[in-house]
Amino acid sequence: MASFDSVGNFVLEGGLVESIPSQYLYGTMFYKAFVISGAAKIVTKTLIPSQMMLIAGKLYENVPVVQLGGVSVASFRIKNAAGITVALVNSEAFTNANIEPTSPYTVPAGSLILAGRAFLGYDPDRESSQGE
After folding, report:
1. C-alpha dihedral, 50 to 124 to 90 to 37, nearest 10°
2. Which residues contact 15 (CB under 8 A, 6 or more apart)?
3. Which residues of 41-56 are buried (b: 16+ CB within 10 A; e: fewer)?
4. Torsions phi, psi of 39, nearest 5?
5. Is the distance from CB of 20 to CB of 57 less than 8 angstroms?
6. First to last CA, the chain
7. Nearest to 26 by CA among 7, 40, 6, 9
8. Residue closest to 22 by CA, chosen among 112, 113, 109
9. Is the separation of the CB atoms in 113 and 96 below 8 Å?
10. CA distances (Å), 84 to each of 6, 19, 62, 79, in order?
11. What 8-state DSSP symbol labels residue 127?
12. How many other C-beta atoms lie within 10 A of the C-beta of residue 11?
């Protein structure tokens, strides 16, 4: 349904919905879900039947790995074989003007932060549906 590669690209067969209020991510209103949670709140939920991913925060792409490694808040980290963080989901908001270019530069909790790009859609084959 979804995958990360060694340079931080993310492929999701379905769609991604950002900035979902946390009260909609709680409970059992979904049939089946893969959940990443932290700090007593659910921050990311992937709906198995519809292959949709809901996130409480925002999607950030092409973030240099050095910046990902420097994120100090509690996070679900995806690392490559060399142990380098190439993607993460943060459980707390933090301020970083390099990641969030809009003042007050706050990266919301539950954001998906990638060193690479996100390839979204029901045909995740990058060559045929998303380009390079």
Report:
1. 30
2. 51, 52, 53, 120, 121
3. ebbbbbbeeeebbbbb
4. 50, 45
5. no
6. 20
7. 40
8. 109
9. no
10. 9, 27, 15, 5
11. I
12. 19
Residue 104 preceded by cis peptide, ω within 30: yes
- Tell whether the torsion through CA atoms of 75, 7, 79 and 119 is positive or negative: positive
Task: Give the tokens for residue 37.
Answer: 């949670």
Q: In the 3-class helix/strand/coil scheme, how is 64-120 assigned residue by residue?
A: CHHHHHCCCCCEEEEECCCCCEEEEEECCCEECCCCCCCCCCEECCCCEEECCCEEE
Higher pLDDT, 16 or 10: 10
What pLDDT, in 10s, does the model give residues 34-78? 566 554 444 455 554 556 777 888 999 999 999 888 898 888 899
The pTM for the full model equals 0.77
Strand partners, 42: 37
